[in-house]
Design a protein that fits this description.
mainly alpha; Recoverin, domain 1
Length: 173
């Protein structure tokens, strides 16, 4: 799995590192990230973050925007990589963001609800082997559910087409 903000040295796997989020949540977060990465460079810079916050209805001052980036900017490049963007949602779900911070507003106003599954506690986070097995099976279940849904939709479409052709044949005779 590629990522918009992966480094050249190692491949960043959101599903591997951010196991507290479902595949759907990760997809939604990546979609949101890409939507506001206007430069398509794999980063959200200060001006892109400004636009994002304005569109979400929580405009920030220049200093506020800088502080938002600073709070999760691990590599100190003054812009958000996809990994750093995901950290916002991890911190929000863990209750680590101040209520009045711009990051809290971003996490709250984006349509990604991390509270539905929430973040597992630190104890679970460090129980790597059993959790990894559970996570793998959870992802497998999600994939199977998505595949079943696609099959169901394809079958419904096939039935609708057959019904239409049958109805159509009564009019062409």
């Amino acid at each position: 799995e590629g990522s918009p903000g992966g480094s050249g040295r190692r491949v960043f796997s959101p599903a591997g590192e951010f196991r507290e989020f479902s595949r759907r949540q990760l997809r939604d977060m990546e979609r949101l990230f890409r939507q506001y990465d206007a430069g398509k460079d794999g980063f959200i810079d200060l001006m892109e973050l400004k636009l994002m916050m304005e569109k979400l209805g929580a405009p920030q001052t220049h200093l506020g925007l800088k502080n938002m980036i600073k709070e999760v900017d691990e590599d100190l490049d003054s812009k958000l990589s996809f990994r750093e963007f995901l950290l916002i949602f991890r911190k929000a779900a863990a209750g680590e963001l101040q209520e009045d911070s711009g990051l809290h507003a971003l996490a709250r106003l984006s349509e990604i609800d991390v509270s539905t599954e929430g973040v597992k506690g630190a104890k679970n986070f460090f129980e790597a082997k059993p959790q990894a097995i559970n996570e793998a099976s959870r992802f497998e279940e999600e994939i199977k559910a998505e595949q079943e849904e696609k099959k169901k939709q394809a079958e419904e479409l096939k039935q609708r087409k057959a019904a239409f052709k049958e109805l159509q044949s009564t009019f062409t005779q």
